[in-house]
Amino acid sequence: MSKEFRAFVIVFLFFILLVSPALSATEYNLKIKSGENPAVISSGSELLATYAREDFSLKVVLLELKSGGSAEVVDSVVLTDTTRKNTAVCLGDILSLAFIDADSYIRLSFIELTRSGELDYIFNKVLTEKSASAPTVAAYGKKVFVAWVVSGGEGNIGLCCLSVSKKGKAKIKIQRTLYDFTTSLPPSITVLDGYLYLAYADNDGAVHIIPFEIEEKGTKIDLIQAEERPLNIKAYTANGGLPSCPPAVETHEGVLYLGWVDYSDEMIHIRSYEPTDGILTIHTEEKIFREKVTHFNIYEHKGNIWVSWIDDYNPGSRTTFTTYTQKVW
């Protein structure tokens, strides 16, 4: 074998290693016709999606991804509640589904993922708070945090924590309004190593992550705000107005992932951070994913980070959109 041919083989193999992650990142069409704010989430081993149907009723589906970019519905349940905006998280084998009802009140529905791979409705909890946006939820053991934009205010963020049991009980442990932070879009929350991280885009498009230390004393919970580090990130604002797409956060194995649609190129950017005592250090990696979406979320599934989105750019008069998902890390 000549030196020139060996050099060619080395360069060729390096090229294959370089591009192989992109080639293996299959885009899956979940065949879901959803409303404005579907949520694709994972129980760790099972993939689920919650969304509003064309009649605004809420549906939860258990999915199995197939080769070739398709997905199959394994089981499903339809709730009688109606909404267009929802989000969800798994508390072990309990799916916590948060949404706003026809009167703008925040509702939480809890659905059990049984060992036989079926979905069983457990109970519903109505909060006394009204929301101006889709609420967002984060799991914390057998508790769930909920964040929302307070209705009728100046864009302040509401925050509460509930303990949840399979016996049909959800008790509020803490509830407060964060008057120092304002936004016109839904916030995003996640929990990592005893800290709650709240991400939002302010009305100028600047993206923030606010850390709160979770302090537990017996059955009581408190949130102690920690230091915010500037991210120097600006979200895309249509025609110089308000941000058009909220940021999203997720955590896995000590790493916090932040996603946003960037002002510079209208692409989804996802950064990874490794916080220390709630403080975000310089990000360790950044990936640029795809362009021109107004809703997406990131989630962990089987040890990998995934992103889901809907084909809603320039939606016009459409009321339903197709949902897609793809592995990022």
Q: Describe it for me?
A:
This protein is 7% helix and 57% strand. The chain is mostly beta strands and 329 residues long. The protein has one domain (28-327): Neuraminidase (6 Propeller). Strands 1-24-23-22 form a 4-stranded antiparallel sheet, with no helix packed on it. A 4-stranded antiparallel sheet has the order 2-3-4-5, with no helix packed on it. A 4-stranded antiparallel sheet has the order 6-7-8-9, with no helix packed on it. Strand 8 and strand 9 form a beta hairpin. The longest helix is centred in the N-terminal third of the chain and has 22 residues, at 3-24. The relative contact order is 0.12.
Could you name the key traits of this structure?
single chain, about 325 residues, mainly beta, Neuraminidase, four-stranded antiparallel β-sheet, about 5% helix, about 55% strand
Q: What is the topology?
A:
Elements: H1 3-24, E1 27-34, E2 39-42, E3 47-52, E4 57-66, E5 70-82, E6 86-91, E7 94-100, E8 105-113, E9 119-130, E10 136-140, E11 143-149, E12 156-165, E13 169-182, E14 188-192, E15 195-201, E16 207-217, E17 220-225, E18 248-252, E19 255-261, E20 267-273, E21 285-291, E22 296-301, E23 304-310, E24 321-327
Antiparallel strand pairs: 1-24, 2-3, 3-4, 4-5, 6-7, 7-8, 8-9, 10-11, 11-12, 12-13, 14-15, 15-16, 16-17, 18-19, 19-20, 20-21, 22-23, 23-24
